[in-house]
Amino acid sequence: MSNAFFSDLLTSIAEGGRNLLDRKGWSATDMPTAAVDVLTLCEAVLSGRGEASGAAIAREALNAYARLPDLEKVEFFESLARDFGPNRERLAKAVSAYSQSPDAAAASNLHYCTEPRRQELFRRLNRAPGGTKGLVAMRADFRKFSGVNPELALVDADFTHLFASWFNPGFLVLRHIDWGTPANILEKIIRYEAVHQIRDWDDLRRRIDPKDRRCYAFFHPAMVDEPLIFVEVALTTPMPDNVQALLAADRAHEDAEKARTAVFYSISNCQEGLAGVSFGNFLIKQVVVELRRELPKLDQFVTLSPVPGFMKWLSAGTDPALAGLDPAICAQLTSPEWMDAPEKIESLRRTLEPLAAHYFLKAKTPDGRPVDPVARFHLGNGARLERINWLGDRSAKGLRESASIMVNYLYDLDEIDRNHEEFANRGEIAASSAVRKMAPRGESRSLFSRQGVADSRARLEKLAREL
């Protein structure tokens, strides 16, 4: 109710401002159709003083931007990067003042003068009704075009800086998504699911309606009908090792009151415009608090996570551990035929499980972080890599991205902080002894032994001939 009240208040202010503009000859029939016209509106937003007229012009600017064709949007962003930086004259004066008298006041003024005009523009656009949603959509557009011009990174830095404050987890609202949630939000849950596709309404109901299933989402007060991120949870007794059993239409339901394990099996970011603004870790922690309050017997919190980078890493073959691996074999692994032959399944398992353990424990990006993006997320949150699950995801997507492998990350509440600090400060990966034993041993912990590579290569070549 309060959100609706403030939304209506902003709208009435903007409408009042629009009436003022109309009386001054601002015609709605002369709406901007080119980037230069939208930029003129943006300059008017920055130069205006009145709250009502400012909100009205901001709304017109956002609406006009949304109607631009893609090429005009690129021109708009290029102009933001080029012409909406700091005021150079004021900045030069501030630099000179600080060099002559480097005190706190001069430093504060210098900091103020270094701020690009883009940031103030975004703040004022945000005052319009629907301004926050419009800016998130604007950044989603921006991410499509950012590769066109490297200088556009300046614009993205300002988006990210402001969004990190506006979408601070302290402002977000956690909501339980169930079958009674409004249909327009449920439709978005179906559309935004990014890990395990929701096929239809019946499939959605199986995930959120039973007593042993939960779904939670973060919302922002300025975007009350737009989930930002959501997590799907299964309540089980053991730790699951495959997603087929969790999602089966004919599965046996468990007694939620007797469940000991909460399984986070799907986490989906909904807003492309908020990419890079991290609040997923806060979502998990808050959901844990909610679940423990409702079900005190829960004592194990785990994920059943995809491994979206494994096949890409395997196919690239650049890691020394993959020396001699035929890339053609990787293409054959994406075909489901081998899952009908038990001997091929076991042969692949003996080969790929050690490779997967190496992938998680030793494969790194140039900046020293784990290659897998999901691993970076959970390990960075303080989770422990608990188990590698062979045939965890037999879907076409699971084969294509991870050769069917899934993993469990364990959120041990007593170890989360220590694991996070070790990972953040030293790059240490928390992993169970079972996973570490699975990794190949050799002359170097970071590489396979020559014999190990030869054995793996021989098995894969034999398998390729059989396939």
List strands and helices in order, with pairings.
Layout: H1 2-23, H2 35-47, H3 51-66, H4 70-83, H5 88-100, H6 104-113, H7 117-125, H8 131-145, H9 153-166, E1 173-176, H10 183-192, H11 201-208, E2 213-219, E3 229-236, H12 243-247, E4 261-269, H13 280-294, E5 300-303, H14 310-316, H15 327-333, H16 342-361, H17 373-380, E6 384-389, H18 396-402, E7 406-410, H19 416-426, H20 433-438, H21 450-466
Parallel strand pairs: 4-5
Antiparallel strand pairs: 1-2, 2-3, 3-4, 6-7
Helix pairs in contact: 1-3, 2-3, 2-4, 2-7, 3-8, 5-6, 7-9, 14-15, 16-21
Written account of the structure:
Helix content is 53%, strand content 9%. It is an alpha+beta fold. The protein has 3 domains: 165 residues, Malonyl-CoA decarboxylase, oligemerization domain (Butyryl-CoA Dehydrogenase, subunit A, domain 3), CATH 1.20.140; 134 residues, Aminopeptidase (3-Layer(aba) Sandwich); 157 residues, Malonyl-CoA decarboxylase, catalytic domain (Aminopeptidase, 3-Layer(aba) Sandwich), CATH 3.40.630.150. The strands form 2 sheets. It has a 5-stranded mixed β-sheet, with helices on both faces. The chain has a two-stranded antiparallel sheet with strand order 6-7. Strand 4, helix 13 and strand 5 form a beta-alpha-beta unit.
Keywords:
single chain; 467 residues; alpha+beta; Butyryl-CoA Dehydrogenase, subunit A, domain 3; Aminopeptidase; 3 domains; five-stranded mixed beta sheet; two-stranded antiparallel sheet; 21 helices; 7 strands; globular
